[in-house]
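Subject: sequence -> structure tokens, single chain

Hey, anyone have a minute? Need the predicted structure for the following. Not urgent.
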Amino acid sequence: MLSYALSLAALAEILKANVSVPAAAAAAVVFAAMSIVTIAAPVVVVLVAPDRSNEVLASWRAWLVANSRSIALLALMVIGVLLVVRGAYDLAA
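Reply:
Had a minute. Here:
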């Protein structure tokens, strides 16, 4: 359900941007491609190197588990900075 909410929010932001139809389509394609990478990457690893896929995916999982707090903190900081910048811009305009 979360991915649907994020997709709708991204679509709303793209439509609010008042850009041309090709630019909006390009933004939607880039968003979709970035969204699918997290699902497609493990599938590609299994298809390309099925004999080594267990090791590769286990190392990816170990890295994600070890760095999950840092990743979440960084993502929240970036979102916070973007919101502050957007709010300051809206106040100044």
